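Good morning,

Attaching, inline, the backbone tokens for the sequence recovery test we're adding to the shared suite. The designed sequence is right after.
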């Protein structure tokens, strides 16, 4: 979520706070406004990716993983979903709404250095044979998901795990703060 734009923060907070005058969401997660997609990707793919992320987050929560969306581990990389497990496991899930969305992603291998396991999340119609076999696979929709293939485990070094857990906590706390106080600008506090 881009906190530089006050409209995004307000939309998030109004959608998630009871009594805000807007109908509550089934699953209160940030309404993410990502940068425009390349011309060859229809705008509907943007919404489909967000719905996939919601289903993934619901599924992982059922397995005692907490999640955040749109986390930036380092400048130039932004993961769709980062999950923190009960034993401090860190998983990254990239949601792909179409084959074109997948083939245009030239940065995904950079995410491998920031997690213990990496997964793709796609819908049931996605041609999953194009996804690398050495990665995890989740099939999702807006309401739930299923892990079809576990990504191989590559444990983070303790120092890097500490950095990522701190980033995860700050990211989650900033989003909570934005929901509680939408008038404050959080852009000065980083991604």
């Amino acid at each position: 979520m881009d906190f530089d734009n006050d409209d995004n923060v307000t939309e998030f907070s109004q959608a998630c706070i009871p009594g805000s005058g807007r109908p509550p969401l089934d699953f209160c997660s940030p309404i993410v406004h990502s940068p425009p997609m390349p011309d060859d990707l229809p705008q509907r793919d943007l919404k489909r990716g967000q719905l996939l992320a919601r289903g993934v987050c619901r599924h992982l929560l059922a397995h005692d993983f907490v999640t955040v969306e749109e986390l930036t581990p380092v400048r130039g990389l932004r993961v769709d979903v980062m999950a923190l497990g009960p034993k401090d496991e860190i998983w990254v899930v990239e949601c792909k709404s179409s084959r074109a969305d997948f083939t245009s992603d030239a940065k995904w291998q950079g995410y491998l250095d920031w997690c213990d396991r990496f997964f793709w999340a796609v819908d049931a119609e996605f041609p999953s044979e194009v996804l690398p076999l050495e990665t995890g696979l989740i099939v999702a929709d807006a309401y739930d998901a299923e892990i079809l293939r576990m990504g191989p485990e590559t444990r983070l070094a303790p120092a890097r795990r500490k950095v990522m857990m701190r980033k995860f906590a700050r990211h989650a706390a900033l989003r909570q703060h934005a929901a509680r106080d939408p008038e404050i600008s959080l852009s000065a506090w980083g991604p």
